[in-house]
Amino acid sequence: MENNDTLPDSYFDAVFDSFLILLSVAVIAVNLLVISLFVCREYLQTKTNSLLISLAVSDLLVGLVGIPMNVICNAFLGVGVCMAGALIYRFIAVSTMYHILLVTLERYIYVMYPMKYINIVTVPRLLMVIASVWIFSLFAALIQLAWLDPSNFFYQTKTPEEIRFDVGYHIFGSVFCFFLPAIIMAYSYVRMFLVIHRQIKEIRGLYNTRSAGHANQKAPIATEARALCIFAIMLTVFIICWLSFYVSGFLFAVLPGSVLGLSDELFMAFDYIRFSVAFVNPFLYAFLKRDFSRALKSLCRRDGVQPGELASTASGSRFRTLTINFSLSRSSDMYRDA
């Protein structure tokens, strides 16, 4: 600790950290709103939304813990606070990515295997994979304590063994917590969009003389396409905002001097952009989804859920068992009879 005199008294920046505090309040407010809507509106409690609410809880932790830890670390440079903030930062990165992966895989099964969806995606399995994401995210963040010395947090004096562990950890994290899930999700979205596009074309051809029937059967597929677009945008936002975190972490572990020339302002901008994902996510997956947007509108009107809204939204759960086989199955009797 003989290098204490080389550290500044504080990294606190009045403008940057004030905006971080405002962002923290906004993140807490918007995610609490999403969670409260899910709890109070029974028709929102679907399998897909259960995954999204788990992500909302993860995003809520960004505002409750992640950003405040970052601000306190900048202000006081306490070793314990800064180390805890770094671990939470990693936890947020892993948790968000794997929650988005779960949503993608759930939608993939729903679109590609509609007749098997009910048997594959069950509530116990859903709860199990959600719990697995939380446990794995905690493990991925806390495992660093096995070789890192918290008291040496601000200094780069690491033993060769610590360097080897650090390099291996960042390689594993970059591959299995970012690039590989991103590739899997990109492939899944391409497959799903192709299937939905083909189904829309088939229905258009089958019902070209039955405009009413055409519109009724096309609506569920159009809704699903809208949802896929929202989730794909959410994935793109996450990749753009967090790519710098994984790249800089990997470079810092492999070539410690490669990122030292970057300005503090650039690092602060990257931090702000990454934390902003927790604020953007609810608008993408909740307020742009039809069921959540209807719930929000009913909340704004303060007159509760309209019967028509309840019926149309609640039918989403029945849609999986009654109409998905008709509208998305390539081996539907409707297609053969036509």
From TrEMBL:
Gene3D superfamilies: Rhodopsin 7-helix transmembrane proteins. SUPFAM superfamilies: Family A G protein-coupled receptor-like. It is found in: Cell membrane. InterPro entries: GPCR_Rhodpsn (IPR000276), GPCR_Rhodpsn_7TM (IPR017452), TAAR (IPR050569). Keywords: Cell membrane, G-protein coupled receptor, Membrane, Receptor, Transducer, Transmembrane, Transmembrane helix. Belongs to the G-protein coupled receptor 1 family. The chain crosses the membrane at residues 20-39, 51-69, 75-105, 126-147, 167-190, 227-254, 266-288. Pfam families: 7tm_1. The lineage of its organism: Eukaryota, Metazoa, Cnidaria, Anthozoa, Hexacorallia. It comes from the Eukaryota. Residues 30-285 form the G-protein coupled receptors family 1 profile domain. It is a multi-pass membrane protein. PROSITE patterns: G_PROTEIN_RECEP_F1_1, G_PROTEIN_RECEP_F1_2. This is G-protein coupled receptors family 1 profile domain-containing protein.
